[in-house]
Amino acid sequence: MAIPVETFFLAPDAEGTLQAQIRQMIAQGILSGRFRKGEKLPSSRRLAAHLGVSRITVTLALTELQASDYLESRDRSGYYVSENAPEPPAFADPAPRRETVDWARALGRRYSDGDTPEKPLDWARYPYPFIYGQTDPQLFDHANWRQCALRALGARDFHALSADHYDRDDPSLVEFIARHILPRRGILAQPSEILITMGAQNALWLAAQVLLTQRRTAVIENPCYHALRDILTQSRCHLHAIDVDRDGLPPEALPRHADVIFTTPSHQSPTNATMPLDRRRALLARAADREALIVEDDYEFEMAFLHPPLPALKSLDTEGRVIYVGSFSKSVFPGLRLGYLVGSKPFIREARALRASVLRHPPGLMQRTAAYFLSLGHYDSLIRRTARVFAGRREVMEAALAAHGLDIAGRGAFGGSSIWMQAPDDVDTTTLDTRLRAQGVLIEPGAPFFHGPDRPRNFYRLAYSSIPSGRIVEGIARLARELDSGPGHGADRPC
Amino acid sequence: MAIPVETFFLAPDAEGTLQAQIRQMIAQGILSGRFRKGEKLPSSRRLAAHLGVSRITVTLALTELQASDYLESRDRSGYYVSENAPEPPAFADPAPRRETVDWARALGRRYSDGDTPEKPLDWARYPYPFIYGQTDPQLFDHANWRQCALRALGARDFHALSADHYDRDDPSLVEFIARHILPRRGILAQPSEILITMGAQNALWLAAQVLLTQRRTAVIENPCYHALRDILTQSRCHLHAIDVDRDGLPPEALPRHADVIFTTPSHQSPTNATMPLDRRRALLARAADREALIVEDDYEFEMAFLHPPLPALKSLDTEGRVIYVGSFSKSVFPGLRLGYLVGSKPFIREARALRASVLRHPPGLMQRTAAYFLSLGHYDSLIRRTARVFAGRREVMEAALAAHGLDIAGRGAFGGSSIWMQAPDDVDTTTLDTRLRAQGVLIEPGAPFFHGPDRPRNFYRLAYSSIPSGRIVEGIARLARELDSGPGHGADRPC
Q1: Where does the HTH gntR-type domain start and stop, copy by copy (chains A, B) (predicted)?
Q2: Rounded Cα distance, A116 and A187, in Å
Q3: Helical (H) or strand (E) element with B339
Q4: CB-side exposure of A149: number of CA atoms within 13 Å?
């Protein structure tokens, strides 16, 4: 690779002769690892023109660097970083600055102390990854996705996609959502009631910023999606957590004062509870009574392979009270970062303005590619194929769990991609997770989902979205063995 | 196109017989425009299984819909929406809800009343678009961009890109920025001091959220980038605007108390002023004196075709006081939505956590495609080609402006893509813009860049980034003519 001439720079306050400055600049580039062995330098003519010095000065500097083995010249083609050049330290700190800024004081707000746990990025290396929310590369229709991207990258679309869209979305994606996705949930919406977001996370974040203030109260489910709790904590509203039961959020437990209720009625996160129709109606009535809004996170509704799902809460809403959050992260792939908000126009207008201020718009290429993938039917095929495979895996998993007598805390009436599990009371599933990793098994500890200081530590989530059917039995067996041998259950307890 | 079976839904509280409900559901789908003429319905067998009703019920409903001309059957291949079906209204409002939510009360915060003006999305239809910040499709290297995207879409990269990255960036993109982009600005940074953002806008937004509170003071340049002012207004910090002069922000005008200074030293936005080295040092010293941080927006540094640019303010910073904002929106294309923040680790840690909460991460595909485009040298070729063309256009533009005696208020010592113009005092350039549009000329009125109630109305920006050289002379001629005939200058003044 050739090193671009623009990379070369003489510090305006450097000392020494020009020739020495050039030598030093190139040697430092090599020592800092920026210029690598075998890379070609610009010609002395170009370098001289770029730096605004005479060519002879550059030539003399290069010759000296050659003499000291930083550079080597190859006949007629110029100078290269020498194979014998001094070794750079492995991308070492460039001359450490004396940082005098007092960051404890300078930071206006902190965001890094949230509840959302780190998940292992190398999960695919574990043989038994009961990890949630990741793609199974075996299931994804990569060939057709690539075709759709190619089409979106074509000259015809390119102009539209490369432009600055300010605050607008891809009309073909919005139309497909309005015509073909939302009706599956019983929702009829206008394009102006839909906003494309960077995934469900971004949709929840936007809703929280538009609807909440420090004086307002948000109701959340307990347990709930930890990233949602981080979002609400950051918004500094009052948080009121309500314990869910087997039917999800109990409406009668709503506090007298509530401004926004965040709920996952189709498929409670993480317990998988499905809220019955009567309770949905009761929730809407109680929300109306309090003049509260409801943000409905309808994640994973596509994975209803056991029964057709109940229509969304939003479909029962005649007052504009429900704001609906949908996502393609689970049904297509998480790295796509595309989701959507559906709500009344005054709400969508503010969410759109905020989105424009924060990031303008999700990249046009991703939106158009998704629009092609959806409208050409690949999305429906993918969902059907995935649902079929998940149904099979779930059967294997339920049988294995039953065989080992492991307690299921919530399984989801319609399907889904995970089972919510309860270990004996004295088991800390965070410790269990650590011990299991050593045996190639990944589970998701439940504590981060719970609110407040006294979090139950014996719940965990087992997903079957990323583990092949054939590995489930052995994975569950290892889990059962570890539970048996753990604190309170085995002879060889560690403490 | 076939209508997916999942789109069909019986409302749980619908009245009438099942057969009537099915009829009504399909008819409504057609009347609302969701099902379109010629689209194929699922087979009666699939529809029956999906709805959980008997096949004969479905068949009877479909037969009746055929009789009433909603559907037509084609031999052996099933039912289609009839070509004679009743016309849907043009995506009309679905049965208007009686919205009872009081949105004036329900919205916690408003974001839609910012200063950022709407720009015409159809600017490419204007023959004389002196519009700023849009791509010129003639200049962009579409073929190589597509190649890079194809490579990023390959099976090998796909797994990495489809995964949920939580809060991480593409390492190859970060490394290229550290090794090859930042050194051009005299900046040496570690990968851990770099955060990829959704463009410069997102970078400025993140910096504002991390560094400012309602009790802190942000200093901005006057005039400045209007979207930055929107971001700061939303953050509700105190705003202190300082008038820039021919050398940009004058450090001696800094208020005694300042927490964060937002500045564009290389290329003041929108006046194009370049801050001299002495003033940069003075600014750093005064910021240190006040323990203030500086956010340096180094937009458009690549377009330095007249002289090599001065090194960035960040390169003079030995204390960690400067946070640097870079972007590929101007140098690649705006729809890419990729930029970066460079700063001390404590700052980057908080900005990364906030980004994760707001949107997780910029899509992997965009990051990897950009990494290939940069590392294969296409970026450098693109910049050189663009700079050459811009240099030519600028020459034509300056000659045309001189020929008509139009006043240049700021032209940028190093290059850039626009010229900051001053019309006579009594000209309102917003009105001028409206009048010019009728003649196919697009200019950018200057008022939205200014702060406070008494905004000068006679400035405007003329960019040469999207107008071909051959059209500049005529475009400037029309502008000059309109200025001559406008209020205060012609016989035929409108009032």
Answers
A1: 16-84
A2: 31
A3: strand B339-342
A4: 23
The Cα-based distances of B38 to A140, B35, B41 in angstroms read: 30, 9, 9
Q: How far apart are CA A219 and CA A217, in angstroms?
A: 7
Calculate how close chain A gets to B489, using CA atoms only, in Å: 36
CB A467 within 8 A of CB A393: yes
Query: Which of A331, A300, A314, A312 is closest to A185 using CA atoms?
Result: A312
Give the count of Cβ contacts less than 8 A between chain A and B.
357
Cβ distance of A293 and B209 shorter than 8 Å: no
Chain B residues within an 8 Å CB radius of A164: 119, 133-134, 329, 334-335
Q: How many CB atoms are located within 10 Å of the residue A463 CB?
A: 23
Residue B330 has pLDDT above 80, yes or no: no
Instruction: Confirm if A221 and A248 have CB atoms less than 8 A apart.
Output: yes
Report the chain A residue with the minimal C-alpha distance to residue B217.
A108
A419, A390 Cβ separation under 8 angstroms: no
Contact A198 B353 (CB under 8 A): no
Q: Which of A426, A409, A448, A445 is nearest to A222 (CA)?
A: A448
Omega of the bond prior to A129 within 30 degrees of 0, cis?
Answer: no
- The better pLDDT of the pair B52, B97 is held by B52
Domains in chain A, ordered, with CATH?
5-81 (1.10.10.10), 123-135+381-485 (3.90.1150.10), 142-379 (3.40.640.10)
Strand A441-442 versus strand A217-222 pairing type: unpaired
Please list, residue by residue across B399-408, b when 16 or more beta carbons sit within 10 angstroms of its beta carbon and e when fewer do. Answer: ebbeeeebee
Residue of B nearest to A4 (CA): B380
Interchain CB distance below 8 Å, A337 and B363:
yes
Strands B71-74 and B78-81: antiparallel
For B343-385, how does the pLDDT look when each residue is reduced to its tens digit (9 = 90+)? 999 999 999 999 999 999 999 899 999 999 988 888 888 988 9
H or E element at residue A459: strand A459-463
Best mutation target, B34, B111, B319, to test chain A (most A CBs within 10 A) = B111
Among candidate residues B113, B111, B115, B26, the one with its CA nearest the CA of residue B71: B26
Q: Which residue of B has its CA nearest to A92?
A: B190
